[in-house]
Amino acid sequence: MSERLHIDWTACRGRGLCGELLPEMLDLDEWGYPRPKQGLSVPRALSGPARQAVGLCPRQALRLQTEATS
To answer: Could you tell me which CATH number the domain at 2-67 has?
Structure first.
C-alpha cells in the first residue's frame, strides 16, 4: 500500500506551508497555492514530511489517502 497526498482546494487559502515542508513534491504558485511537481503519490522517504505537512496545515486542506498497489 502506498499513500497519496490529497489537497482540498476549497479549504486551501495559499498559506504555502505545505510547499515549504514538501519542496520535493510541491511548488508554490505566485499566490502561495501548492502545485504538484510530478503527481501526489508520496514516496516512502517523504512519508514523515508529508505527515508533518498534513498535521500543520492551518486550514486542514491536506490529507493522506491510502492507495492499493498491485
So the answer is: 3.30.70.20
